[in-house]
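Supplementary notes for students who missed Thursday's class. We covered one full example, reproduced here. Read the sequence, then the structure, then the short commentary at the end.
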Amino acid sequence: MRRGGGPATVEDDVRPAAWRATYPAGVTGVCFLSEGNHAVLSFGDGTLRFLTPEADGVAVSEQVRAHAGAVLHLCPDHDGRAALSGGDDGRLVRVSPDGTVEALAAFPGRWIDATAASAAGRMRAVASGREVRLIGADGTVRACAPPAPSTVAALAFNARGKRLALAHYGGVTLHWTANPEGGTPLRWVGSHLAMTWSPDDRHLVTSMQEMALHGWRLPAGKDFRMAGYPAKTRSFSWNAKGTLLATAGSDSAVVWDFGGKGPEGRPPQQHGRRDDALVTHVAYNPRHDLLAFAWDDGSVTMAGPSGRTAQVDRLAGRPAGLAWSADGHLLACGTEDGAAALWRMPRG
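Structure (token representation):
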């Protein structure tokens, strides 16, 4: 971004890849650590790799063996210094850039269905089947939520880290992290697959098997629906101000305006519409209204505040993850075919 107001056009932010590679195993997740700006790639063979930007390039770590099977879930841990990884071997582990692997939870004979971490609450949550455990910063299990009504498909902490949402068939259940007994149900018939909580804690949005989004305005619990998607939404991203929600699952990046009274009665913005591909992942720059989104043909596109778009690159395979660094200067993507790339964005 140029200092004092962003780029003249979105094309000003497009740069050739600073690093790219192809690995034998497919990528299953991409995230960044806030400490050290390390990008993290997880793979279907149970390994992770850390990418560290340097003045003259990008340093790539040796692969770190984290699981006996595939990595199913990847996110930054609560302190931003390590990655939280859940596998189909039923283990939740913390993996540091130096290769240290610390076991946090195990569900023998099962796999990890969902993970989440809260910087504000200094806590992690992990789900396997209907069971959910809350794990503190010291690695001990702080509490176990009552069994969910069905298999937990997604977990999300609110911005203050005081509430945890569980998505499952039939809706969402909210628990207080200090005392997860009981729970407040937010009911809506159907399978809820993924979930995001707005930065101001006023809205909770899920994606559904029926290729629609469902939301609740909190604390009242008034619900609303956002339909018209040709595919399931598996990726959400809020802009830096927390007023716009970008979503995947359509032939464009669909952006809903949550300012004022929220999205009810407002048509969404649609960026970069194509007739030959669907958006699989969306990621807002954490400091600017610059939206990156990836398509099922491996293309990566950016849209500026005006909605003007420019193609960043194209990788081999269907994207499995797309993420910005905390400072907004690095963008990383990985695909199911094992292709990965990292781009540097202008500073300012």
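Commentary. DSSP finds no helices and 31 strands in the chain. Residues 25-112 form one domain. If anything here is unclear, bring it to office hours.
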